[in-house]
Amino acid sequence: KIFKSKNLNKNIFKFKDDYLKKMKLYINQKFSKIDINKTYIFHHREPGYNNTSYMRGSNIKNYLPSIKYLLSKGYSVIRLTHSTAKKLNITNTNYYEVNTDKYINKMLQYYLIYKSRGLLCSSSGPGSIGSLLSKPVYHINSVGINVHATNKYGIYLLKKIKLNKKTISFKYAIKNNYFKFYLSTRYSIKKGYSVIENTPEEILEGLKEFINVKRNNKTSKLQKKFKKLLPSYMELKLYDSNISKNFILKNKKLFLDLIN
Fold it and tell me: What SS3 class is residue 221?
């Protein structure tokens, strides 16, 4: 069932009781050693997945420091994968990989995200589950006008943009209408645009913000100004979530003409 709600921080989705009971039993059988409430779910989209462009994809290696950081802090991490995804060589009893090509796991992913502490994702399908269930979402490597992190506990990072091999500011990209045609990769490339993935350091620092956002979710002046100056067609302007404070500070040159 879906209920109307103007509050993005409240659940708007309700599972059937028999589904919840079935998934809880399955979790207890397959993941008996973890506390799902202290677990983060992770999913990323590979470059060129399903013969699509590289725009939404990212290198799995860039996420490794963040996964290891969560594990070092006593959290569990469950990565949602598929049959051809590259497995990570992580030898930790609190790390799991779940192949969602299997029917039971395809159903399970909703429950895992629903019961988890939060979701780490890129611009990919499971990210929308986090939005739908009003979960805290850390959206990494976003390229567009919207993100899966929508409520006040959400944090996001944007891919940097290049024009003719030169990194440009976000205001320059907005002024040149990049975000109005970015979905057409062929057109973007024809115009000389490309994108740069978030670095392992940017992802890790953003993660540290994300896991502490419930204790400190005060929006900074820089975050407010960035959102205020976004054009009305960018959905980012309307969300309760925020761009990472650290990402702004570490990339001042890309934000100077927006936040000064």
Answer: helix
Which contiguous run of DSSP H or E holds residue 190?
helix 185-190
Residue 84, judged by CB atoms within 10 A of its CB (0-12, 13-18, 19+), counts as exposed
Q: What is the DSSP letter of 2?
A: B
Residue 10 amino acid letter: K
Name beta bridge partners: 139: 121, 156
- Give the pLDDT confidence of 225-247 residue by residue, as tens digits: 898 888 888 899 999 999 999 99
Identity at 101, one-letter amino acid code:
D
CA distances from 253 to 26, 171, 174 (A): 49, 11, 15
pLDDT at position 58:
85
What pLDDT was estimated at residue 2?
Answer: 37
Number of helices (H), then strands (E), in the chain: 11, 10
Neighbours of 225 (CB within 10 A): 14
* Predicted confidence (pLDDT) at residue 1 exceeds the cutoff of 60: no
DSSP per-residue codes, 29-77: HH-TTS-GGGEEEEE-PPTTGGG--STT---GGGGHHHHHHHHHTT-EE
Instruction: Quote the tokens at residue 250.
Output: 């570490």
